[in-house]
């Protein structure tokens, strides 16, 4: 295990939570180990581990980029992560407003729909706690 991998795993757990990372680790197969290593080292151990900008802003950038490029599948995961990095719901909505202007209203609209679904789930689980 490289230092970058170890750092990446630490940041990944801090941002996404242990439960998410444990599920992802349990789902790994021999086929995707190289890919999982790549994203842990590069995305989490290099980009997310950098202290050049705070994680809150990194979360908002990530959400805007995912929405702007139409990569909606990871938006719910990163909306959940944004709560761990200090981004408020208003912050996330501001990021999606930028998406609407610079990348298209339909993309922002879909991202907002996904965020609202996540927030409803979070609110429901808080109400049960």
From TrEMBL:
EC number: 4.1.1.44
InterPro entries: 4CMD/NDH-1_regulator, AhpD-like, CMD-like, Decarb_PcaC
Pfam families (alphabetical): CMD
SUPFAM superfamilies the UniProt entry points to: AhpD-like
MF annotations from Gene Ontology: 4-carboxymuconolactone decarboxylase activity; peroxiredoxin activity
Keyword Protease: no
Domain of life of the source: Bacteria
Protein keywords: Lyase
Residue span(s) of domain Carboxymuconolactone decarboxylase-like: 35-116
Name of the featured protein: 4-carboxymuconolactone decarboxylase
């Amino acid at each position: 295990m490289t230092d970058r991998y170890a750092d990446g795993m630490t940041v990944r757990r801090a941002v996404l939570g242990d439960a998410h990372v444990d599920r992802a680790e349990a789902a790994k197969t021999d086929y995707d180990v190289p890919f999982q290593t790549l994203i842990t080292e590069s995305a989490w151990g290099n980009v997310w581990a950098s202290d050049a900008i705070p994680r809150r802003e990194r979360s908002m950038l990530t959400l805007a980029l995912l929405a702007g490029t139409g990569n909606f599948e990871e938006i719910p995961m990163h909306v959940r992560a944004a709560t761990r990095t200090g981004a408020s719901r208003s912050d996330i909505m501001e990021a999606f407003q930028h998406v609407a202007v610079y990348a298209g209203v339909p993309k922002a609209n879909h991202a907002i729909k996904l965020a609202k679904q996540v927030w409803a789930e979070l609110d429901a689980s808080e109400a049960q706690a």
